[in-house]
């Protein structure tokens, strides 16, 4: 019993990612076609017919595998739609990898896409089961804003200090995104502007929250041993972990809102699979789920990058900056990209694809060793977290 | 003889400064009036009063709920009041809705029924600048009737008179009235006659009565009728200076009079609407004078701006947030969880003792699957574990203050904190449950839930 590294390792041999943003002129079909065809094109010119099975990640942009088959005119192939809230993109990728590793298929695709802007809402609309009206209704920023006072209390750090670190995270991710042609928001924002913005929930302002966007991304996955048939620079998968908590934190008085235990567990599992013993030094870059700035702050501890209670210090010291010891969200993160649910996990992997192939332009990290992707859904106390570890070295 | 065993008054916390109204609408205004909060209606206020009045009593066989602003028509509001008041399914619960006279009617019905709880609750408003808006009071009162009273019923008299003095068409905001002098000429003789009738039946003289309550929406008729009594007889109700509380006014006045009364005192309560009703009670040795209504210990009022007041009433609709429409609770789910939704009954795990809020099939702490005890959380105070202000909430009043509450003796629940507009709160603050509205959906379904509010009784 237990969670193990794949017996048959797998590799990504083709990837593509659309630009993220307000695609008023394109529907979800257009986005899925662009990502899918792009990924196939980068995998040595594979055609749709060469793919044995598909996994589609989408939360609200369509139901069933037919959401992918119709626009692509795929016929008579197994297509699975998966959903795990905001971790949907990682979940599609994870399941696709398992399918190849199991020996069931030779070539598979993980595709994630979401069209959110057409709804006209600010923020996300979560699908909900008809209920008795008693579950508390609060916005996602409000749920995550609870981290701030809780973290302050737990570690005796003044909230002002935490807010300063949150501002640094927003500033950093916007600064990174300004260098990324695929990002939705491509402007540097001065710290003064971020700090002075009016609050939306608790201590969170609009700059502490990621936006809504449309976008899609796709990956072609094969057995590691076959990878060089498709590309000279494949991206190898070292770990795939998912942790779904019991979702009871918000009804359990033992929970204090300051930690994201599911993130820590999924990271631990992934490190064991990848043979990583000291993530703070062995991970060269990370794409993490910065849905809100305090999320990224706490994740630095959950992922083992910072000591407990010290992440705010490391953030302010620039450890996670583009030129820091461990660049985090060097592509701009959810803060700059916005968050088309089904696509985000794959967008994060796409940055690894570029980085490990040396194609990240002026964002390029020198000689990365391991890259970590963390993607989560839910809220503090009620969370699923996925961690993927990749590199350019075959496991 | 049956009489009133227990009683309670509920006044909502918000207070509207009439001078604030005058600044917008013109005219003059002084003093303030109680206003139902954005998440209150006649039903939730009735629950507050009923819960308080029923505390420590043996319950009731019937419930009579009077209001002129029923939350629902056709669907019973009395049933909601009964469920949220923790009354059993065997209760006979009836709405006495629409007419102002329902307040007196519910009291008569309750007294006749023998063992009952009479709940009168009203929200008074009209068009901006109207007399109903300025001189009304949102309030609720509940009277538990039974054979072991603190105030026994000595006698009643009623007169019914068909004439048009004030009226409102269903769905209308405003009430219309006929000219003042006509009302005075019709009402004052009715009050005189019903007082004579009831005192005659009880073989009492006016001067023998210690406390007099005169309740009528017609202010000139009330002023004239009061001249028939001494100031001392009217003093108990005067001190409150609340304004006219509609269908709840008679019961509120009666509660105030009883607060001031001593054993042996006689209380005359008169309501004049579409006729007149008079009740005489004699206060018994069981009565402990003062504070019994709960008014003296009630939360202090908090100002509400005229803009917020109009918004709460739906008279100044605000541009909604760009968010999906509020989803209504669905009847089957609400029915399945009625004990939780309306009664705030949690499931205490028999294995580990943890209280699951809401009840679950598998204990969230120890995963036990059986042996849960239903436990009412309504009277259980708690402490704020953490909180936030949510400007993106669906709540009518922004920011919504959301709190995680750890209840005394175990159990955690997240909900909106109410009666906290503009109030500084902190982790560790004491809170207590309150039955309120979460939202009203597009299909008209009102989402009643339990929230928390500041707990004032034992601040430490």
Topology, element by element:
The complex is a heterodimer of chains A (395) and B (460).
Chain A lengths: L9 E8 L10 H15 L10 E5 L8 H7 L6 E4 L5 H14 L5 E8 L25 H6 L1 H9 L3 H19 L13 H6 L2 E3 L2 E2 L9 E9 L11 E10 L16 H14 L4 H4 E5 L5 H10 L8 H6 L16 H5 L3 H16 L13 E10 L2 E10 L4
Parallel strand pairs in A: 2-3, 2-4, 9-10
Antiparallel strand pairs in A: 1-7, 1-8, 4-7, 5-6, 8-11, 10-11
Chain B lengths: L2 E8 L3 E4 H8 L6 E3 L7 H13 L7 E6 L9 H8 L7 E6 L4 H12 L2 E7 L8 H5 L3 E8 L4 E10 L5 E2 L8 E2 L2 H23 L8 E5 L3 H8 L4 H8 L10 H12 L5 E6 L3 E9 L18 E3 L1 H7 L18 H6 L1 H4 L3 E5 L5 E2 L15 E5 L5 E9 L9 E8 L4 E5 L13 E11 L5 E9 L6
Parallel strand pairs in B: 2-14, 4-5, 4-6, 11-12
Antiparallel strand pairs in B: 1-7, 1-8, 2-3, 6-7, 8-13, 9-10, 12-13, 15-16, 15-17, 18-19, 18-21, 19-20, 21-22
Helix pairs in contact in B: 2-3, 6-7
Describe what this molecule looks like in 3D:
The complex is a heterodimer of chains A (395) and B (460). Chain A has 395 residues and is of the alpha/beta class. Chain A is built from 13 helices and eleven strands. In chain A, the strands form two sheets. In chain A, strands 3-2-4-7-1-8-11-10-9 form a nine-stranded mixed beta sheet, with helices on both faces. Chain A has a two-stranded antiparallel ribbon with strand order 5-6. In chain A, helix 1 crosses helix 2, helix 3 (88-101) packs across helix 13 (341-356) and helix 6 (159-177) crosses helix 10 (293-302). Chain A is globular and about 55 Å long. The mean pLDDT of chain A is 96. With 460 residues, chain B is an alpha+beta fold. Chain B is 25% helix and 29% strand. Chain B has twelve helices and 22 strands. Chain B has a nine-stranded mixed beta sheet with strand order 5-4-6-7-1-8-13-12-11, sandwiched between helices. In chain B, strands 20-19-18-21-22 form a five-stranded antiparallel beta sheet. In chain B, a hairpin with a 5-residue loop joins strand 21 (430-440) and strand 22. In chain B, helix 2 (42-54) packs across helix 3 and helix 6 (180-202) crosses helix 7 (219-226). The interface between A and B is large, with 36 and 48 residues. Chain A: Residues 10-224 form the Thiolase N-terminal domain. Chain A: Pfam families: Thiolase_C_1 (PF22691), Thiolase_N (PF00108).
């Amino acid at each position: 019993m237990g969670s193990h590294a794949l017996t048959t390792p797998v590799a990504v041999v083709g990837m593509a990612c659309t630009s993220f943003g307000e695609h008023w002129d394109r529907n979800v079909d257009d986005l899925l076609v662009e990502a899918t065809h792009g990924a196939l094109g980068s995998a040595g010119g594979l055609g749709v017919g060469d793919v044995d099975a598909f996994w589609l990640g989408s939360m609200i942009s369509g139901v069933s595998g037919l959401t992918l088959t119709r626009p692509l005119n795929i016929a008579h192939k197994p297509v699975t739609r998966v959903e795990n809230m905001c971790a949907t993109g990682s979940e599609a990728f994870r399941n696709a990898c398992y399918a190849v590793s199991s020996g069931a298929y030779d070539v598979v695709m993980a595709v994630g896409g979401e069209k959110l802007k057409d709804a006209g809402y600010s923020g996300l609309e979560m699908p909900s089961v008809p209920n008795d009206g008693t579950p508390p209704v609060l916005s996602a920023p409000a749920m995550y804003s609870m981290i701030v006072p809780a973290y302050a209390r737990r570690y005796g750090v003044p909230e002002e200090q935490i807010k300063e670190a949150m501002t640094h995270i927003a500033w950093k991710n916007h600064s990174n995104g300004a260098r990324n042609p695929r990002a939705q928001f491509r402007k540097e924002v001065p710290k003064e502007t971020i700090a002075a913005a009016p609050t939306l929930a608790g201590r969170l302002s609009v700059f502490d929250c990621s936006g809504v966007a449309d976008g899609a991304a796709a990956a072609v996955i094969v057995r590691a041993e076959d990878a060089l048939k498709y590309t000279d620079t494949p991206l190898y998968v070292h770990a795939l972990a998912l942790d779904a908590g019991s979702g009871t934190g918000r009804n359990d008085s033992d929970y204090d809102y300051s930690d994201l235990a599911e993130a820590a567990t999924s990271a631990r599992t992934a490190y064991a699979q990848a043979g990583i013993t000291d993530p703070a030094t062995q991970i060269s870059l990370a794409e993490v789920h910065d849905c809100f700035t305090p999320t990224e702050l706490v994740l630095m501890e959950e992922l083992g990058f910072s000591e407990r209670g010290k992440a705010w210090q490391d953030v302010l010291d620039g450890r996670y900056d583009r030129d820091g010891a461990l660049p985090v969200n060097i592509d701009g993160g959810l803060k700059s990209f916005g968050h088309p649910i089904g696509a985000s996990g794959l967008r994060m992997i796409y940055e690894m694809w570029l980085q490990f192939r040396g194609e990240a332009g002026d964002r390029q990290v020198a000689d990365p060793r391991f890259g970590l992707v963390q993607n989560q859904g839910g809220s503090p106390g009620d969370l699923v977290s996925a961690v993927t570890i990749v590199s350019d070295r075959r496991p | 003889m049956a009489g009133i065993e227990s009683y309670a008054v509920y006044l909502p916390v918000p207070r509207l400064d009439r001078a604030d109204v005058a600044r917008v609408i013109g005219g003059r205004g002084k003093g303030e009036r109680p206003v139902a909060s954005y998440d209150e209606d006649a039903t939730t206020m009735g629950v507050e009063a009923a819960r308080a009045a029923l505390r420590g009593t043996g319950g009731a066989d019937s419930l009579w709920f009077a209001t002129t602003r029923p939350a629902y028509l056709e669907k019973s509001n009395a049933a909601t009041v009964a469920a949220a008041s923790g009354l059993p399914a065997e209760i006979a619960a009836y709405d006495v809705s629409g007419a102002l006279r329902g307040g007196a009617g519910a009291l008569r019905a309750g007294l006749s029924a023998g063992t009952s709880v009479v709940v009168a609750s009203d929200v008074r408003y009209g068009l901006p600048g109207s007399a109903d808006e300025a001189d009304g009071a949102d309030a609720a009162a509940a009277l538990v009737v039974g054979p072991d009273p603190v105030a026994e019923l000595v006698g009643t008299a009623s007169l019914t008179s068909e004439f048009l003095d004030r009226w409102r068409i269903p769905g209308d905001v405003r009430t219309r009235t006929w000219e003042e002098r006509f009302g005075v000429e019709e009402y004052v003789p009715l009050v005189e006659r019903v007082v004579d009738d009831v005192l005659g039946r009880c073989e009492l003289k006016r001067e023998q009565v210690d406390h007099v309550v005169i309740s009528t929406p017609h202010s000139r008729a009330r002023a004239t009728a009061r001249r028939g009594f001494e100031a001392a007889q009217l003093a108990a109700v005067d001190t409150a200076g609340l304004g006219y509380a509609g269908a709840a006014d008679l019961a509120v006045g009666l509660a105030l009079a009883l607060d001031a009364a001593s054993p042996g005192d006689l209380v005359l309560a008169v309501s004049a609407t579409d006729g007149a009703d008079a009740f005489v009670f004699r206060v018994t040795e069981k009565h402990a004078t003062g504070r019994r209504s709960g008014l003296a210990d009630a939360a202090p009022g908090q100002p509400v701006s005229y803009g917020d007041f109009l918004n709460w009433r739906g008279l100044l609709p605000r541009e909604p947030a760009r968010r999906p429409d509020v989803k209504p609770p669905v009847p089957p789910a609400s029915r399945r969880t009625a004990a939780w939704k309306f009664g705030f009954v949690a499931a205490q795990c028999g294995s580990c003792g943890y209280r699951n809020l809401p009840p679950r099939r598998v204990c969230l702490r120890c995963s036990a699957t059986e042996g849960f005890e239903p436990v009412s959380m309504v009277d259980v105070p708690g402490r704020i574990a953490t909180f936030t202000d949510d400007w993106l909430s669906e709540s009518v009043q922004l920011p919504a203050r959301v709190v995680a509450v750890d209840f005394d003796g175990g159990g955690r629940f997240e909900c909106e904190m109410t009666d906290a507009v503009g109030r500084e709160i902190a982790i560790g603050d004491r809170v207590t449950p309150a039955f309120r509205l979460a939202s009203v959906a597009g299909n008209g379904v009102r989402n009643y839930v339990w929230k928390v509010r500041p707990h004032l009784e034992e601040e430490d």
